[in-house]
Write a structure and sequence with these properties.
2 domains, 283 residues, Jelly Rolls
């Protein structure tokens, strides 16, 4: 392999901005040569497939993959026969030195110690959030506040602790479907709707959930329903019976039993407690 070219930040972004963002649409065989730089990058594939040689190893990246390139990484890439479209954001190294000190509880992908950089796959719904950021950042001046807001949101998006992830242990196709299913418009459909979103049978879905989490699909679905109800109780004044029906638990006795088992209080008690904390006084 040839000696990599070193790209300095002063050349990548000579106008004093803190970030540079661009969308690449590559045809088969197109890509970038072997190089490294003194700044950090993150890129995510919107479509197609990319061959990525990084630090002496060969990887294949697909739509939804996000790769965090550190300043010392050496890499080159080219599109496969189907081509590839991806967004690349390079940025000044300063914030990655400062932000981890201010937010020590977050795992910073650009400080990943392994030989290969941190790479992850995001669901279509989370990718939509990155697309929104791309549109926003491409229309701004690229100041430090823009960069820091993006980096904090990105790290929060990809580094959520596994113990808070209801999709823990589940395959990617099911985790992606759960993010879509968790919307009010799908919850009432129950396990049948979730199976439809997954493109699998209910029996297959139940086996996967049981093996991964030791519970039934119905129990997983009800967790999502109750999580949505709890948020709605905090954030709206909708009638409790309406919330129960909307989430797919119209039989109030059953709904109340599930809610109490999950939160240790009634829905009304939950709403009142949330309002009391928010107002700092009893009603």
């Amino acid at each position: 392999m040839t000696t990599p070219q070193t790209l300095p930040w002063s050349v990548e972004c000579p106008d004093g901005r803190f970030l540079h963002i661009v969308r690449y649409c590559l045809r088969s065989g197109q890509g970038w040569p072997h190089h490294r730089h003194d700044f950090h990058e993150v890129f995510w594939l919107e479509s197609g497939t990319l061959r990525h040689a990084i630090n002496g190893q060969n990887l294949t990246l697909h739509a939804g993959d996000v790769c965090f390139i550190r300043a010392h990484d050496e890499h080159l890439a080219s599109a496969t026969a189907e081509g590839a479209t991806f967004i690349n954001l390079s940025f000044h190294p300063g914030p990655v030195q400062d932000l981890p000190q201010r937010y020590a509880g977050l795992a910073w992908p650009w400080l990943h110690p392994d030989p290969l950089p941190f790479t992850t796959h995001l669901s279509p719904r989370r990718m939509e959030r990155l697309h929104t950021w791309a549109d926003d950042l491409s229309s701004r001046q690229g100041g430090r506040i823009d960069l820091e807001c993006f980096l904090l949101d990105l790290v929060r998006l990809v580094a959520r602790p596994a113990e808070h992830d209801r999709g823990q242990g589940l395959p990617a196709w099911l985790r992606d479907a759960l993010e879509v299913f968790a919307d009010e418009c799908h919850l009432a459909g129950g396990t049948a709707k979730l199976a439809h979103l997954c493109g699998r049978s209910q029996a297959h879905l139940n086996r996967v959930v049981q093996e991964a989490q030791g519970r039934t699909t119905t129990e997983l679905v009800n967790e999502l329903r109750l999580t949505w109800v709890a948020a709605s109780l905090r954030m709206s004044d909708r009638r409790i019976a309406d919330l129960a029906t909307s989430c797919g638990l119209p039989h109030l006795g059953h709904f109340y039993r599930l809610f109490f088992a999950r939160f240790g209080t009634t829905p009304r008690g939950y709403r009142m407690a949330a309002q009391q904390v928010g107002m700092g006084r009893a009603w």
